[in-house]
Amino acid sequence: MTFPHVDSVSVADLPADFSDSVVLLDVREADEWELGHAPSAVHIPMGDVPARFGEIDPDAQLYVICRQGGRSARVVEYLQQVGYESVNVRGGMVAWQKAGLPLVSDGSAEAKIY
Q: What is the pLDDT of residues 59-77, one digit of tens each?
């Protein structure tokens, strides 16, 4: 699935650090998030984005991630329609894990992306 009109980057091209002005928005479901996520990501499930996009600074540099890149591309399309500049992360958290980037979980189990 490709989204030619959606800007995207690979995990290798992501900034080294995230903050209030450089945001990694994880749009996966809560159960996916709990199993493993990027340490500094902001979690807003895809279905909640329309009601909660106001929680994100419109001036922030925004990178959107999901499991493999499909849901996040759709969220990027939506955010662009409501005036947010955002970029899709190609390959999503699967690519993040393959690249050996840090993962944390909300439970006691080792963080892992399935």
A: 999 999 999 999 999 999 9
